[in-house]
Amino acid sequence: MDKLSQQVEIEKYQAEKSMSKHAPQKTFGKTTENLANCRLTSPLTDEQALAIAEMLSISEPWKTLKFSAAALAKYLMRDDTSLYRYAVSVDGKLAGVICVRYPWLRGPYIELLGLSQDHRGQGIGKQILAWTESEARREARNLWVVASSFNHQALDFYQGLGFQPIGPIQGLVTPEYDEILLRKCLD
């Protein structure tokens, strides 16, 4: 690349960087988001975290993975500035959670998307993922998630929304099961 081309690229980068400083909102920066059938609020309160942990620990895949309510609550309440946690409410009732790590590998990583048994299969997860993808598109080219190899419902869900399996990660959560890394290109 010649010096003129380099200078042009540097100026473009600086202009983009300058514009992002003045952007009205950072990715995953809102504290409340109203979707068609649910509401996302952040940050989680300790009370919400405990209730969500109890809710998820008695359902799949957390039962099979042997995650206790205490372990899930610890995860939801730990101090981690790169993990954005949103309580999911439906008709004013706590229904689940989404936790998104950002930044990650050139895009956000959905660490946890969990809904109560009563709120699964109603399109709420699709709405939450559409919102997550919209947020990710502000600054990223990828959206990542993992699902347990035995969790065919989750794997089908993510693949049905355009995520492609990248490959297994052995022993990531437990030695008994692989986790399947999935990626959605946002180009």
Task: Please give the structural blueprint.
Layout: H1 3-21, E1 32-34, E2 39-41, H2 46-57, H3 69-77, E3 83-90, E4 93-101, E5 109-115, H4 124-137, E6 142-148, H5 152-160, E7 164-174, E8 177-185
Parallel strand pairs: 5-6
Antiparallel strand pairs: 1-2, 2-3, 3-4, 4-5, 6-8, 7-8
Contiguous runs where pLDDT drops below 50 for at least 5 residues: none
Number of strands: 8
Overall form: globular
Helix/strand-derived class?
alpha+beta
Q: Helix count?
A: 5
Span of the ends, CA to CA: 25 Å
Largest sheet: 8 strands, mixed
Main-sheet strand order equals 1-2-3-4-5-6-8-7
Gyration radius from CA atoms, angstroms = 18 Å
Query: Could you spell the SSE succession in H and E letters?
Result: HEEHHEEEHEHEE
Beta-strand portion reads: 25-35%
Query: Roughly what is the average pLDDT, rounded to an integer?
Result: 90
Proportion in helices: 25-40%
Description of the structure:
- The chain is α+β, with helices and mostly antiparallel strands and 187 residues long.
- The protein contains five helices and eight strands; from the N terminus they run αββααβββαβαββ.
- It has an eight-stranded mixed β-sheet with strand order 1-2-3-4-5-6-8-7, sandwiched between helices.
- α4 links the parallel β5 and β6.
- The longest helix has 19 residues.
- The chain is globular, with a radius of gyration of 18 Å.
